[in-house]
Structure formats: C-alpha cells, structure tokens
DNA sequence: CGGTGTTGCCGCCGATCCTGCGGCAATCCG
DNA sequence: CGGATTGCCGCAGGATCGGCGGCAACACCG
C-alpha cells in the first residue's frame, strides 16, 4: 500500500495543488477518467492522508500584513523544558506562520507575518523575547518574495 | 474600496483558509447568510484579489520528500545581473518551495524540499552552487516541523 | 420631506454537479 | 480454468450552483 500512486493520482494532485476548488467533473475530464472513478480516487487520497486538506490562498498585503520576517531563535539549553514551552507558545501565536527546529547555528527558524515594523517590534518583545529560555534572536526582514507558492514537485 | 472587508468577509476567509473545498451552501449557513449572498461575496473576494486561489495541502513524507531544508545564499555583488539571474533560476527549480530576498547578513533565504540527503547534495551542487554569482551558502536541515500550516491571522 | 439611486440580501428555478448502485472487463491466484 | 478482486463505466436521484427579479435599508439631494 506504500506509495501506491500511479500516474493519474499524481496528475490529480498536481492539478489540485493549484486549483483546489475545481469541480470533480472537470478534474475528471482533465485526467481522462469518468467523474465516478476520479471522485473515488480523490476520496482515497484524502483517506490515506496524501491530501491533508484544502485551503484558500490569500493576499497578505490586502489584509494589512505587509511585513514578512524570518527569525532565528537560540534557546538557553540549561532551562528545563525550554524546547517544549517554546514550541507550545509558538503554536499559539497567530503571527507565526511556520516554525521549524533546525540543526546548525541556532535552534528554531520562525516565519511570521505582521502589519509593519512597529507591529514586529511588539511581537518580538512581547511574543518571543518574553518567553523563558529564549537566549538570542536574529531577524531578517523580507524585501522581495521571489517565490512563495510552496507547491510540491510531482 | 480599500480593505472593505466586514466581519462576514473575514469569517469567510477564515473558514476557507482551512476548508477550501467546503460547498457554498455549507459556507453560507456557517456565516449566517443565504447561499446566493455568500457566493456573491466569494466571487467578489476572488475578483478583488484577496483570495488568489485554492490549493490542496499534501503530505510531503508520503510523496517521498522527507527532507526540508533552508539555505542562506550570498551573492557576489560584483557580478552583473546576479540577482535577476538567480531569481529566474530559482523560479524554475521545482525543489524550491519559497525564495525570499532578505536584508541582513545574506541575500536570499531559500526553502526547499528533497527526498533525502543525497538528493540535497545533488540539488545544492547542480542547482544552487553552479549558478553564476553565488558566493556562499549555509544550509539548515529541519529536524522537526513545529508549525507548518502557514494560515494567516484574521 | 419625498423621490431616486445604490447596495446587499432573499427566494426561485433551470442547469450543473455529486454519489451510490449495478455491470463489465482485466488481472491475479489457487 | 474458475473465481475473487480491482478499477472503471453509465445511470439516476438528490444536492448544489448561479443567474434573475424583487425587496428592504440607506444615503443623497433638490
């Protein structure tokens, strides 16, 4: 059952990554199958967890979230539960779009969106630096988003 | 017309960010409007560019893309067109999910997904380092994805 | 104050879409 | 070679979509 994805499955995923709200009948004729068979595949892909969900892509700027920042966070390793508490806090923070634990010069890489620089200062001071165990942060403000769709290669 | 989003609009966006394939009638009863009015709002949100599209969320691990990496790239500023050529190459590379030009210690932050370490070595050598003007790179491999949905706060 | 235009919503209805069912061909296996 | 399984198709009843006309609230203005 592992990775039992044929050519049609991958084609379905490829289409749905970019046009997630396409009706099943149109998806069917694009992959060259009947709507019934296509719907069955879609249902199976969701059940197997290959498709974890569907979502709308929004324009951050039109929503007043013009500033995208990446923050490298170093934790104080002597503080007990520092990692668990930091992770929990980050999951609760709405400004944080992503947070990854990395190996290398620091511990976490945080991607966050805020309205502007004052808002970022507030988020950094009240949201990140106030967490216990946070040792050091380094902020990189994004000047231009060269590529940002995040579509997986198939 | 700028930012003319009322409470219902934001509620629609909030729901569609997580459940992009919800039928219009269900969306309507959740926001407490008729299906007609709700569909009209949805159409308007797309026309105004607030909603830029819909997409399926896929599980990278089930697709054999288990390794997530971030790469900090520094360019040789003396090479003419270095920035434009780098940006163009990155847009063509399927492994690259995101690429942001940042201000700070380096020039571009690249987020990429590959199958495993050997695949990453190949991508780094043939995809990134072979580009003219690339001066230096620093790679951070993700050990744990603490938060990765990327849902905007509303 | 009343006329008028605008906006946002509703109900209705024909067209479209979804989904469960039965049938069929290909494949696999004992 | 017989039988089970798998994946697909066509069909049909029911759900959903989207365009249309109507209506109420509101703002503007003479």
From TrEMBL, chains A, B:
Coiled coil: none
Gene Ontology biological process: regulation of DNA-templated transcription; response to amino acid
Lineage: Bacteria, Pseudomonadati, Pseudomonadota, Alphaproteobacteria, Hyphomicrobiales
Domain of life: Bacteria
Gene Ontology CC: one annotated term: cytosol
Cited Pfam families: AsnC_trans_reg, HTH_24
Originating organism: Methylobacterium aquaticum
Record's keyword annotation contains Ribosomal protein: no
Database matches in CDD domains: HTH_ARSR (cd00090)
Descriptive protein name: ArsR family transcriptional regulator
Alphabetically ordered keywords of this record: Activator, DNA-binding, Transcription, Transcription regulation
């Amino acid at each position: 059952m592992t990775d039992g994805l044929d050519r049609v499955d991958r084609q379905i995923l490829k289409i749905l990554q970019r046009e997630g709200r396409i009706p099943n009948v149109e998806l069917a004729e694009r992959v060259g199958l009947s709507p019934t068979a296509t719907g069955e595949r879609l249902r199976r892909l969701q059940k197997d967890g290959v498709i974890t969900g569907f979502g709308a892509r929004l324009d951050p700027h039109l929503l007043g979230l013009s500033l995208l920042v990446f923050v490298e966070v170093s934790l104080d390793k002597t503080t007990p539960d520092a990692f668990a508490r930091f992770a929990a806090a980050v999951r609760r923070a709405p400004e944080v779009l992503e947070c990854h634990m990395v190996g290398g010069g620091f511990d976490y890489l945080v991607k966050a969106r805020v309205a502007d620089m004052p808002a970022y200062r507030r988020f950094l001071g009240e949201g990140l630096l106030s967490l216990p165990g946070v040792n050091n942060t380094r902020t990189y403000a994004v000047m231009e988003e060269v590529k940002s769709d995040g579509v997986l290669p198939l």
